[in-house]
Amino acid sequence: MIVYGTDKAALKSTAYSGKCVNCNTAGSVQIHLFQKYAQIFWIIPLFPLKKVGYSQCSNCKQVLDSTQFDSIYKMGYDALRTGSRTPVWSFSGLAIIAVLVAWIMITVKNNTEENRKLISSPKKGDIYEIKLGYQEYTLIRVSHLVEDTVYFNPHSYQTNKITGLSDLKRKGDEAYTEEIVSLLKGELLAKLESKEILDVER
Ligand SMILES: [Zn+2]
Q: What pLDDT was estimated at residue 167?
């Protein structure tokens, strides 16, 4: 579960040279600029939201947010805003997601390469995950080889979920039938490309 929220971080502040609009004290007001950002898991910044500002008077303690600023406070606030960039760290979550996606893509690619290698040099006992049709999956196991023809024993069971294949594997060696199915290596590679062969295990 992803816990989503927002938070803000102080970016900059500046002293306002005029008088406080509330208590009329000169030089008592500080204007602060904050970056609001979306965050996940209470701590990881996901992406930046808008910048927000507050004024605070050290004398009368009045705090105003930027929507309540009069035109003079607003000038100081706008100067703060133009002089501040959106901090790079506020994109951390998006960067992490981009890295994860890239990593998954590389893993999938490597797994496909690995499966190509296994199919090109099959060994007795290799197990192939097969998609037979819509919500129909099973396993076949390499029984023997004659030149470029690979002979398989199909599993006795089928499953309607891809995740059910691990249950089939747990049934062990006895769950494979004595039946023989033969396929050429070229056909196997084609079936890997068309995703009829989902995975190969040695
Ligand atoms: Zn004041």
A: 95
